[in-house]
Every structure is written in structure tokens, then in C-alpha cells.
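User: quick one, sequence for these C-alpha cells?
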């Protein structure tokens, strides 16, 4: 379950973003994560019992990406309005792609 959640988090995090210096590397990382997830679904006894498990996991990614983007937009709005400073990690990760 932890591997599954980690994989979903990583696939959600590695979305297509403006300002990526090496999109091919991101694509390579995404492929490695998907292959690891496939291995987990293939060889995990609990996952084998669930019908269309991999498909259901991958079907949830767009919604997770949307939630991730909504969260970032909220952080940027709060920062823009000077209501709350963005967390330092967010500042560092997205400093190059922040439009303001």
C-alpha cells in the first residue's frame, strides 16, 4: 500500500510543467514509476485479487493532478495577496516557474 501511495504521489507530482529544464528526464522517471507500479500490481497478492487494479489507479491520476494544481494555485493566491507566505519548500521548488 505504501509503494502504491508513493507511486501515485510521484506520478501526480511529475506533471508536465513549464520551465522544465529536462522534460525527457522527467518522462524517463515517470516511466520508471509506472513500471514499478506495474510490478507491484503484478506480483502483490492483494493487488492480484483486485480486478482492473492498474487501470483504476491510472484513471485516478488526472483527478490527483487537478487537486495538486488547485493546491498550488491556492498557495500562490495566498502569497499574491500577502495573506500567508508560501512554505519554503514550495518557494524553492517553483521559484523558476512562479509568474510573479
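Assistant:
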Amino acid at each position: 500500500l505504501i509503494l502504491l501511495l508513493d507511486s501515485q504521489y510521484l506520478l501526480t507530482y511529475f506533471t508536465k510543467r513549464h520551465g522544465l529544464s529536462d522534460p525527457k528526464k522527467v518522462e524517463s522517471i515517470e516511466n520508471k514509476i509506472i513500471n514499478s507500479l506495474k510490478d507491484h500490481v503484478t506480483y502483490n497478492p492483494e493487488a492480484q485479487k483486485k480486478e482492473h487494479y492498474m487501470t483504476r489507479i491510472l484513471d485516478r491520476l488526472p483527478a490527483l493532478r487537478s487537486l495538486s494544481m488547485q493546491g498550488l494555485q491556492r498557495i500562490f493566491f495566498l502569497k499574491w495577496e500577502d495573506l500567508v507566505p508560501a512554505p519554503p519548500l514550495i518557494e524553492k521548488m517553483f521559484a523558476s516557474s512562479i509568474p510573479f
